[in-house]
Design brief:
Blueprint lengths: L4 E2 L10 H14 L9 H21 L6 E4 L2 H14 L9 E5 L4 H8 L4 E5 L17 E5 L11 H11 L4 E5 L11 H4 L3 E5 L10 E5 L15 E5 L2 E4 L13 H16 L5 H10 L5 E3 L7 E6 L4 H9 L3 E2 L1 E3 L4 H7 L4 E5 L6 H15 L1
Parallel strand pairs: 1-13, 3-4, 3-5, 5-6, 6-7
Antiparallel strand pairs: 2-8, 7-8, 9-10, 11-12, 12-15, 14-15
Helix pairs in contact: 1-7, 2-7, 3-4, 8-11
Length: 367
């Protein structure tokens, strides 16, 4: 088989060999369930989870008790909605939630389809969240980086302006795309919740991170093993945070790999000069209309008189992988008046040779 040029890191990141070896070794030699006993293997797994949680906390600048392991960003966002529902006085039919047209379906969908009232914050002329026009809301959803436009938002400023309208607003930040390219600082942002997926940075699927600023303020959304300290008569006495938000068996194999992935990511982030080079070269083709910015982390474009799915089928014949479609981001495509786009994204494995070859084939297909 010919070499596959993988230019779809934004959909899911390829896995570093160190992460694969770490999980394989864990499964072969270390596997046991966490929090389910006192034998040596269980103690070792408990320690692995603790150390990984501390690593994640340092990675996003918070304390370890603020870090909850989930199954991914989508799971995290849905859980946040249910945590708000479960917390007395936090949710009701008059709750106002606010999102923007930068949102991924996974962020906006759960809240827009809930019993709350949903409003949309406009974008400014540069297609960033217009923080000066944030409406009054009880819950504010913030896409830290659009998976179509690839530009980081000023999360700290957005939250400050939202709190001018409502000091008690609950802020939820989706960092699924942001995390691979930028440092996260939840204390600086002063957000209430934040989520990202492990697979977006090279970890396995099935593990994610949910940050909760004040976990003691909220009620758990799930009940099960591991989060109950004891039951006295009919009173449930729960474990301290974050354990009370982690009912059931954790994705322990994926957590073992996550620690390696974070270390590798901090050493080798994607080279966005590759995207800039491709932007400059493809801009020369008059049939290509680029909708992302020159300084973006992704390159998104459409082609005159060619459906994005047709292009995707043609480029795939040359063993080049890139994303085509609406990217689960319907609203921003509606803004541009298109059903979908073509997206190129790079990882730490990509080289200038990959980029030049892809440019050559794109121009060949369009010609």
């Amino acid at each position: 088989m010919k070499k596959i040029i993988y230019l779809d890191a934004a959909a899911t990141y390829l896995k570093p060999e160190k992460m694969i070896k770490r999980q394989a070794n864990f499964l072969r030699n270390e596997y046991a369930n966490s929090g389910r006993g006192v034998c040596a293997r269980v103690s070792n797994v408990d320690n692995m989870v603790r150390v990984t949680r501390e690593l994640v906390a340092k990675f996003i600048n918070c304390d370890s008790e603020n870090v909850v392991f989930t199954f991914g960003t989508t799971d995290g966002v849905n859980r946040i909605l249910n945590i708000l529902r479960a917390t007395k006085g936090m949710w009701g039919k008059n709750t106002v939630c606010c999102g923007s047209d930068l949102d991924h379906h996974s962020l906006r969908g759960p809240f827009e389809n809930s019993e709350s009232k949903f409003v949309v914050c406009p974008l400014d002329k540069n297609l960033n969240i217009d923080y000066k026009k944030i409406p009054y809301c009880d819950v504010l959803l913030i896409t830290a980086m659009s998976n179509v436009l690839g530009v980081p938002q000023d999360v700290e400023k957005i939250i400050k302006y939202a709190r001018k309208k409502n000091p008690n607003v609950i802020t939820v930040v989706d960092c699924a795309q942001y995390v691979v390219h930028n440092a996260i600082d939840v204390k600086k942002w002063d957000c209430d919740f934040m989520c990202f997926s492990g697979h977006k940075i090279g970890a396995d699927t099935g593990v994610g991170v949910m940050y909760i600023k004040n976990p003691e303020r909220f009620s758990p959304d799930k009940f099960g093993g591991g989060m109950v300290k004891r039951i006295v008569d009919k009173k449930w006495i729960l474990e301290q945070e974050p354990n009370r938000f982690e009912a059931g068996t954790l994705p322990i194999t994926q957590i073992a790999g996550l620690s390696v992935t974070i270390t590798e990511l901090e050493k080798h982030r994607p080279d966005l000069n590759l995207i800039k080079f491709m932007y400059d070269e493809l801009s020369k083709n008059k049939r290509i209309h680029i909708i992302s910015k020159p300084n973006s982390s992704v390159l998104s474009f459409v082609i005159d008189d060619m459906h994005v799915l047709d292009f995707g089928a043609l480029i795939a014949q040359y063993n080049i992988c890139m994303r085509v479609g609406n990217m689960c981001a319907s609203w921003i495509h509606k803004f541009f008046g298109v059903d979908g786009s073509i997206r190129i994204s790079v990882g730490s494995w990509n080289t200038m040779h990959d980029i030049k070859y892809a440019i050559k084939i794109i121009n060949k297909i369009i010609k």
